[in-house]
Design goal:
By secondary structure, the chain is mainly α. Helices cover 50% and strands 11% of the residues. The longest helix has 48 residues.
């Protein structure tokens, strides 16, 4: 009898476990979340005694700021983490968020409104599903962050470890072996320090591996002057850019109106569904929950489309004027910038860096603006190389 009773109890426990897992899986398939919420959210119980997910406003604002900062490509991950920690973002233990937790946060699709059980010990569950919880960042911003983390998108953030005395360090590469140049000070007579750039490849066969800093940076300034775009092409390009921007704004406005109309219609359907249950009593509670889950899923997608369609208010003429001043005087601007700004700026102009050999700079790829603003006959490599942009080795 003892064996029979214990066997029945064990069977009932297994049945409850199966029902619990089935209920969790069913909730997951409808966009609900069954596990511990990530930072910025918390689980609460609604009026129907159901657990749901809501945001923690003070943490949500900082997490949103972190995603948006990192998505620009202007800041390193460590700089963004330091910023939000300084503003008060705390981990579960009430301490500043550590590096690994911050990295997991940036990779978590939950913040973009999606739920995923990848990495959890569950079988036959949907790996990715649109959630019914509130998204903190847009899908576009989340995708930009993933591209940066995966190295698919070029960023212009300064190197995490850089020497302000050598802004071209690791940006300029040796023309003979393609190794990045490093920078250091050599001690001369009287213990005076002399700054030099040099190739860090011991097997490099290039002559003159040590280059005086003033010489290398001076020749880089001259190189920037030579790739300056033609002013006539620049004015035409800016006029075209303004026209394209206005067209894009008009299209974005049309998408926004359509998205707003869709969201308004779905909210009205949700209101009518509630009336049909509470006041008219023409549907069952089970049908109500099923139809409500479907409406909330569509409404969440509609709100994402609405946010993505909402264009940024921008004084495009001021931006274009600033871009024109940058493109026509890049050499002077580079000289006047701080070292970290120089690193960002030169990375914008030359995404893949530059090569240096025997006093000559070469690059395989320049900023798209410089390429587009060159005369058409100079864009044909069979005719003549772009002025100041010699072919690579």
């Amino acid at each position: 009898m003892e064996h029979i009773i214990s066997g029945v109890a064990q069977y009932e426990n297994r049945q409850r476990a199966r029902r619990t897992v089935a209920g969790m899986k069913n909730k997951q398939e409808k966009g609900g979340w069954c596990f511990r919420t990530p930072l910025g959210y918390r689980n609460v119980t609604d009026g129907d005694e159901r657990r749901t997910v809501i945001t923690v406003p003070e943490d949500a604002a900082l997490i949103q700021q972190a995603f948006e900062m990192y998505a620009t490509g202007l800041h390193t991950k460590q700089a963004v983490l330091k910023k939000v920690n300084t503003l008060g973002l705390k981990g579960r233990a009430g301490k500043p968020l550590p590096d690994q937790s911050f990295d997991r946060m940036l990779r978590n699709p939950f913040y973009a409104g999606f739920i995923s059980v990848t990495g959890r010990k569950v079988k036959d569950w949907p790996e990715m599903k649109k959630g019914i919880h509130e998204a903190l960042v847009s899908l576009e911003t989340f995708r930009k962050v993933q591209d940066i983390l995966a190295g698919r998108q070029v960023t212009i953030a300064p190197r995490q470890r850089y020497n302000p005395a050598f802004p071209l360090r690791h940006f300029v590469r040796c023309g003979a072996c393609d190794s990045p140049l490093t920078g250091s000070f050599s001690t001369g007579r009287g213990k005076k320090k002399y700054p030099y750039y040099h190739c860090q490849n011991n097997d490099c066969t290039a002559e003159g591996k040590n280059i005086n800093r003033e010489l290398l940076e001076g020749q880089f300034v001259e190189f920037l002057k030579r790739i300056q775009p033609n002013s006539d092409y620049l004015r035409l390009y800016m006029a075209i850019l303004t026209d394209v921007w206005q067209k894009k704004q008009s299209e974005a406005y049309d998408r926004l109106r359509a998205a707003e109309s869709k969201v308004t219609e779905l909210r009205e359907c949700k209101r009518k569904l509630h009336e049909a249950l509470v006041y008219q009593k023409v549907i069952s509670h089970e049908d109500y929950l099923e139809m409500k889950a479907d409406l909330e899923s569509k409404l969440a997608l509609g709100e994402i489309e609405q946010r993505e369609a909402r264009s940024v208010e921008l004084d495009v003429e001021a931006v274009i004027n600033f871009a024109e001043s940058v493109l026509t005087d890049a050499a002077r601007l580079w000289q006047e910038m701080k070292p970290d700004q120089q690193q960002r700026f030169q990375k914008v102009l030359f995404p893949k860096g530059v090569q240096y050999s025997a006093g000559v700079y070469r690059t395989a790829q320049t900023c798209i603006m410089f390429n587009d603003l060159q005369p058409e006959e100079l864009q044909n490599p069979r005719l003549v190389a772009l002025p100041g942009i010699e072919p690579g080795f």
